[in-house]
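queue> holo job accepted (iron/sulfur cluster)
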Amino acid sequence: MTENPLTAWSYSRLNVYEQCPRLAKFRYIDKKYEPQGPAMARGNKIHNEAQKFLEGSTDVFPDSCKNFESEMRHAKTFKPVVEQKWAFNNRWKPTGYLAEDCWVRVIVDFNIEYKDNTGDLVDLKTGKKYDDHGSQLQLFAGATMMMFPKMEHITVRNWYLDIEDDPRDPEANELIAEYSREEAMEFIDDFTERGNEMLTTERFPPRQSWKCRFCHFNKHSTGDCEFG
Ligand code: SF4
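queue> job finished
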């Protein structure tokens, strides 16, 4: 049994916890040192470049986003709100990102609200498409409805900046989902349950998978975990 001091979750933390509770403990409770990989540093740099272009700090289009140049230029004409930090309490009421009652945090790369109570929300991805990304879109959709009470319909998209457009497969480098308010609200209950599980559990067992090979704490690296 481990005392669980966690009071807030995010999609990435929940994802780590669901993939391997012990890794979540090492990272978020024990706060063990973990070097930032080159992929993460690169991803942060590209996000900054995209942010500057979309918010209008520069008109120079970043080469790192060239696979989505026309889409990003078009989105910019709608004056998107860029790089927002949303936070909710455990009743999904908006609160401060660092507030004491913050229970879940959601970072949004950019979103656009239209006058007809519909919206677009885009998450910029570097690297590959992974299966869990669809679930993240559901969190974005649910959180949008809690953030904007008048929103009736949301389109959520992942843009995979590293994957080239494929005319034979329009969704090769994009993941899109559309939800009505009613549909998006159904995800809230599921995430409430999953978030509560992570924040209340006292058990952080190892869960082996192919990812152990790349885990910084595996038996070949720090040796904190006996697997890998
Ligand atoms: S090596 Fe595998 S089981 Fe151990 S902490 Fe890392 S991901 Fe979890």
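queue> Helices lie at 11-19, 21-29, 38-55, 69-76, 133-147, 181-200.
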